[in-house]
Amino acid sequence: MRLRNNPEALDHLKDHGDIVYINPEGMKGKWHSCFESQDAPLYIEIGMGKGDFILENARRYPDINFIGMEKFTTVLDKALKKALKEGMPKNLIFLKDDAVRLPELFENGELDRIYLNFSDPWPKSRHAKRRLTYPSFLELYKNALKKQGEMIFKTDNRNLFEYSLVTFANNGFVFEDVCLDLHHQEGYEDNIQTEYERKFSKNGPIYRLAVRVKG
Ligand code: SAM
């Protein structure tokens, strides 16, 4: 059995309460206070997995504050261990929680950008509501994002990508950029790869979509 919420991992997360927030209450509207630079833009990756992407972003862009969000304890603990080993950037914190709780976690307009990377595709239509680009999730993102806030979505899954093009378009977002082969198209040299991206780009193209909340 795959243990995604083991108690040892939870204890380890709790030992690092200064940088890991576990199902927090009372943080809504106050996330900037977690960082040295309180005026910096706030970016979040929802479903960060083992954290390679958000960790490298935090290193590369010290003038932006980052939150890596993941719902499973054991997965988040892997990200934490890696960050501690390599050096936790001051502009990064971790959040153990589920995206369905965004309205309890973030004030309207608190986020500047949301990343969704290689979100679980949930291919069966009876599971469509679990997709992180299902309309009810897009509604939560729209509220948490600033006016004109941005989302960047990457996947190797063509069906999920096509599905998401439609849901973003029909639920209050405007397209800024659509890329059908991220690793072979010019102009994306600054792309930061995720664990899944490194694994699955061998099998076919990586799709990327950038959208903004419709003004
Ligand atoms: N973003 C990483 C990457 O590209 O390598 C991980 C991708 S993995 C397929 C999807 C991750 O999203 C998993 O770690 C999963 O636990 C997390 N996840 C799925 N649904 C979530 C939700 N509702 N809230 C927070 N995290 C979620």
UniProtKB/TrEMBL annotation:
Keyword set includes Cytoplasm: no
A Pfam family per the record: Methyltransf_4
Entry's EC annotation: 2.1.1.33
Binding site for substrate: 124, 156, 194-197
Annotated S-adenosyl-L-methionine binding sites: 45, 70, 98, 120
Keywords, in A-Z order: Methyltransferase, S-adenosyl-L-methionine, Transferase, tRNA processing
Source species, domain of life: Bacteria
InterPro entries: SAM-dependent_MTases_sf, tRNA_(Gua-N-7)_MeTrfase_Trmb, tRNA_methyltr_TrmB_bact
UniProt GO molecular function: tRNA (guanine(46)-N7)-methyltransferase activity
Pathway: tRNA modification; N(7)-methylguanine-tRNA biosynthesis
Segments crossing the lipid bilayer: none
Enzyme class at the top of the EC tree: transferase
Cellular component aspect of the GO annotation: tRNA methyltransferase complex
Swiss-Prot/TrEMBL catalytic activity: guanosine(46) in tRNA + S-adenosyl-L-methionine = N(7)-methylguanosine(46) in tRNA + S-adenosyl-L-homocysteine
Protein family (similarity comment): Belongs to the class I-like SAM-binding methyltransferase superfamily. TrmB family.
Function: Catalyzes the formation of N(7)-methylguanine at position 46 (m7G46) in tRNA.
Protein name: tRNA (guanine-N(7)-)-methyltransferase
Species name: Sharpea azabuensis
UniProt gene name: trmB
